[in-house]
Design a protein that fits this description.
This is Endonuclease VII domain-containing protein. The protein contains four helices and eight strands; from the N terminus they run ββββααββααββ. The protein has 142 residues and is of the alpha+beta class. It has a two-stranded antiparallel sheet with strand order 1-2.
Amino acid sequence: MREKADVPAGSKLYRTCGEIEPHSEWHRHATASGGLDTSQGVRGGPGRQDRLKRQYGITEAERDELIASQDGACCICLSAPAAHVDHCHKTGRVRGVPCFSCNAALGQFKDRPDAIRRAAAYVEGIAWKPTLVAPGVYRLPS
């Protein structure tokens, strides 16, 4: 069990170095108890910059290069700003940097190209139209 630290009101303890900093020096984190990020403060530590390397195997500079190669726009919709690194969940390979909505859509489709193709056909209006096979004979989509 950790020792209880004497921390003044409005401040938080950096557990890694033992220093106490005011709340203004800590990143906000909506789901953390107390609303402050428990893993790091603004000055760094193992956190935001290391997360890209740990999770995706790329640096911030490599992520920024990807965004620049996409002209700063989402690699899928081409209109919203690129915001989230996307990767293949099987291989771990980084695919690009889509916007929040496109990244969420990929997650909803569970990275299944067949489902994404069917969704595109549905949106284009061709998924449920019968196909004329011979005069008077139509094939319904399965």
